[in-house]
Amino acid sequence: MVVKKPKDWNSQKPENTRRFIASGKDGRKKPSGPRLPNTMKKVLDRLNTRSPVDSDGEENEVKIDTEENSESVGNDIYEYEEEVAQEELGKNRRFDSVENLNYELPDDFEDEDIPSDDEDTDDDGDKDDQAKTGFNAESEEDLGRHARMLQGITGMPIEAFEGRKKSKGNMVSVTRPESEFNPSHNVLDGDNQITIQDLLDPLQGKAGYNQLRKRMHHLEKKSVPIQAPLSKPEKEKVERKVAYAISKKEIRKWEPLVKRNREAPTLYFDEDRDLKYSTVGAIASRFEPRTEFEKKMHSLVSDKKVLEAHANDGTRLLELNMISVEDEKERRDRIAKIRNLLSRHEIKQKHIKKIKSKTYHRLLKKDRLKALSAQMEMDPEAANEQARKQEFKRAEERLTLKHKNNSKWAKRILKRGLDAQDEGTRAAISEQLQQHETLTRKINSMKDASSSDDSSDGDDEDSADSEQDAALKLIEDAREKTVKVLEVDDAIPSSGVFSLPFMVRGLKKRREAAIEEAKLALEDYEKLSKQMDDSQEAGNNSIGVSSGRMTFGVVKPQTENNKREQRFHDDSDTGDDIDVKEDGDNGRQYKENIQIGIRNDSILFDEDSHAHKDSIFKSFDSTHEDPDDKATYEVSIFASDSWMKMKDGKKNVNEELSSQKNKVVKSSSHNNHLKELIEESDTESEGQMVDGILSAGPTRPYELPSQAELVRQAFAGDDVEEDFEKDKKEILNEENPEPEKPVFLPGWGEWVDVQKKKGLPSWMLKEHNDAKKKREEALKKRKDACLKHVIISEKVDKKAEKLFTKVLPFPFTSEEAFEQSMRVPLGPEFHPATAINDLIRPEVVKKPGINIKPIKFEEVNPHAKDEDQQDSKQKMTDNKRKRRGGGKVVNKKAK
Amino acid sequence: MRVKVISRSNDEFTRERSQDLQRVFRNFDPNLRPLGKAVEYVRALNAAKLDKIFARPFIGAMDGHLDAISCMAKNPNYLKGIFSGSMDGDIRLWDIASKRTVCQFPGHQGAVRGLTASTDGRILVSCGTDCTVRLWTVPIPTLEEFYSPGKSSEPLAIYTRQNAFRAVDHQWDGEQFATGGAQVDLWNHNRSQPIKSFEWGTDTILSVKFNPGEPNILATSASDRSITIYDLRLSSPVKKVILMTKTNAIAWNPMEPMNLTAANEDTNCYSFDYRKLGEAKNVHKDHVSAVMDIDYSPTGREFVTGSYDRTVRIFPYNGGHSREIYHTKRMQRVFCVKFSCDAGYVISGSDDTNLRVWKAKASEQLGVVLPREKRKHEYDESLKNRYKHIPEVKRIVRHRHLPKLIFKAGRLRREMIEAAKKKDERRKAHSAPGKVVTKPLRLRRTVKEIE
């Protein structure tokens, strides 16, 4: 009897099926294994068998169950049949026989009514009701089935039908119409809850009901179990988590704005400030008087009458301004009196000024001086003051030489000549000079005290005389010295080189020559002094004298030369050795003479007053300064030559003679040249002289060596390459020093023979080798390792080190980038004014005194960057305009 | 044939006024000036030296309080005004320009611990250990103000609660303010009861700060070493980070609403990103004692800190070390610092009952700066900035004279850190690779992140 069909009932409404837990409790051995579920069985049961009815539904059900079990043991195909255990069969009595193996419930046992969790409570209630109402089981069963059928058809909960059935029993009068707001009695009874169905029912037939019902149906079908509420801390935690997520998302809106600000080269915070009182009127309107004076003024100004008068046409102002006649009269009188006094004083002064009488003025001056002197006597203060004034005047005079005919007027008069002037002018000039004298006198007197020399600081007119005196004195000195030289007897050295006979002879000769020369000089001096005296007698203090001196200086050597030339000619005639020697001596003498002459001249030049600056003089001066030096030099060469020749003696007289002739020619030319020099200081003559020297050269045969030979000869001593290598080695050693050789400390281990034999420990050697290797590598790495002729020092320059950073600074990633950042200078010398502002703009531009508000949100397009850069200038000007316009621009920045 | 002649128009060389500068025409060919770099290096060096010469940061001290200054508040609407509260319950309004008290607000029975002013500068809120919150009207600054000192004002309202308050802060552009004490309370000007209270944990709130850019976000620090963030839009706390040491004060960057910096007890300041609170973005270290207060410059590019080591320092917002240190012999423990609203000045309040005004840039020229002068300053500044990495310039720019105590303490700290680092390295070297992991400081100091 396999029936499969009626399953659909229960499958449709699984929530209404009943499950029984009592099955295990009845104590009988339950067949285990796959079997039909109870519900299905029950249905099968219901369809097929009529079981005895019991009042207790539950008991009844259990019975059904058991019956069913017992019945269907044999033939239920879904039933697994277990065989009876061996021991129970009692085939081999290995175990004791037990009466009852399983625990069996006693017959009178009543099952407790324990509601299971799964059981619907309303079902229980149902059953109670059923018990109370006392319906028989049969009808109950019938009704139940009917209800289930109805439910199956309509899809409504079973209670709906049952309730209707039950309401038959107890009637309740309903006063109000039944609706969702006034639930029916049975709903309120407690055994039934308001279901959605209840609420839906009254809506039946209305618009949208179907839709609503369908949705409810759908909901019921797909309903999900609701979890139990969380504990409070847990709940809060979840809330916070969500809140953080939201809040975080919210704050992300600032990101583009912040990014833009951070990347901006400059932030601007200088919006236009609102100066509250911008006009003078506005400020003045808020003025309040504080001091007494201000208050008084204010009370007058803000007098009501005055204000009123101002407000009207102003005629009343005149009335207010009324002054009494007496007051006005008094004021006028006072002013008149003061004016009168003033004018009188003025007139008096004018009158005094107009008086031309000199006597009057002199008297006046005298009076004044008298008063002054009296005052000086009276109090020392005034005296001091006077003295200081006087001193000041003197100092002024000394500095400016105001009264020394330096004024334009005085110069003009002097130019015209004093004699041409009238008496008064002359007197005035003399007076001026007098004044100068008086003003400078005190200084003179002071000088007198310090130095005893009288002649040096005489008057202007005496100066020329004094100068001549000085010259005389100098000549005197010179004469004295020469006399001394003559008198002194040179002791002939008794030992050394100079004691050799020929040396002694030589010295003697030299001495003689010197004496001769000295005599000559003495003659000169005498002549000079005579001339000097003559000039003094003549009394000419200016140009004439100077020219005389000039010519003297030049004329003298000329005469000398003439003399000498004559002598030369004589010498060449005689052709004697001695004469040659004499000639040499003459040469020396000549040189010295020139020197002396020049010296004398120079002394004279020094002595001469400043009036002696003539062109000739100047030319001489210049020759004296440089070319003359050369001249003397040449002369000295010449002299020494002759000296050498003299030394050579008689060896090659002929040669000497020829050369002597040359030299004579040369010397004569030289003399000529000297004359020229003295007269016009020609440079060409110098060239001639050089030629003269060179002409002496070609007498010896000479061949020019080849270039290579020359070089070899020049650098015969030094090997450059080797030197360089040595230098390089030195530098290398300095920069990479060679490691020290491993040694023991002296005395350490030396007494042990073994150790000595063993030598140094291996670690020392190893260390040494390592150091050596390191050095070699370092040398190899050097930049000049492969360059033979180059030394590149790798020494660190301390001064240059200051200009380099030791490590790459933080934001930079490469050296190039860092250097690039410093490449272009910023200054105004390197850029035009238009470009420089962009270069030196600070990171934050703000104005003092302007409140900066916190950031305000604005939409920023993060992708508009390129555009920004393109028209950055445009934007900046825009911004500026906006700011100037006073719009609400907060923290705008240019990009 | 073309003949080139020098021609100069008269207009180019004529000055409008006699004071005008003569025009100079230059050839800007770089080949003509090969020594530009050397010249600029020397100029940078000179600029750095000049900076040192003109560094006179201290402007003046404002004395008047009878006890240590515990808190300050700036008037966001009025540059010259600053409020200060002291430990004896005195509140004063100062005029910075004349360095005088403009007005006093008497009433607090205990120490004033928090001060803040509304954005329009009309209302001052104070709170203190006497468990009261007081609202005051701020006198409107006028010209006459200078001649009537010693004015005192009555409180607009007094709200008493059960617990002492430690901090108060006002919302930017809003009507709300928050107090911190046993819990965080959110108040409205017009209500006598807090409109909202937040409690997360049982520890005392030490500081409260509204985010000026995002006025609905609020950060607090508490004595459980935590920093907590609240979002008023969602009316709930959002996140809590626990550091290794207590945070004394917090400041939000006014130009970057996601960033905040915490002044910590362990001498450092930690910058956090609101989006990633687990790690500090930057550690600003230089102080040698606990950092007591912090305030951002309105430009958001730097912030000032006051420390228990008697110094005030100015840090760049993204730099690890301070760019400036201010100290005087008389300045004691600094309890509060503020950056002025124009970012030009720094005001510090310290234990010695004085408020001190400093320049934010020590060598800045005060007063009217002519355009040429300004350009020169800018040029010098950019030169210094360019050559700041060159050793000589760097040395001069960095050099600061420090009080001996602070110098020694700093050296000691450095030595200790160095020793710890060395030890760590050794430990690492002697253990299996990968076993000992050293976290960077910015990660190490955060203990936990609580959701």
UniProtKB/TrEMBL annotation, chain A:
The keyword Phosphoprotein applies. It is found in: Nucleus, Nucleolus. It comes from Trapa natans. It holds the Pfam family Utp14. GO terms for biological process: rRNA processing. Residues 504-538 form a coiled coil. This is U3 small nucleolar RNA-associated protein 14. Residues 431-443 have a biased composition (Polar residues). One of its GO terms (cellular component) is small-subunit processome.
Automatic annotation (TrEMBL), chain B:
PROSITE patterns: WD_REPEATS_1, WD_REPEATS_2, WD_REPEATS_REGION. Keywords: Nucleus, Repeat, Ribonucleoprotein, WD repeat. SMART domains: WD40 (SM00320). WD repeats lie at residues 62-104, 105-138, 284-315, 327-368. InterPro entries: Sof1, WD40/YVTN_repeat-like_dom_sf, WD40_PAC1, WD40_repeat_CS, WD40_repeat_dom_sf, WD40_rpt, WD_repeat_DCAF13/WDSOF1. GO terms for biological process: maturation of SSU-rRNA from tricistronic rRNA transcript (SSU-rRNA, 5.8S rRNA, LSU-rRNA). It holds the Pfam family Sof1. Its main location: nucleus. Residues 360-443 form the Sof1-like protein domain. It is found in: Nucleus, Nucleolus. GO terms for cellular component: small-subunit processome. Belongs to the WD repeat DCAF13/WDSOF1 family. This is DDB1- and CUL4-associated factor 13. It comes from Trapa natans.
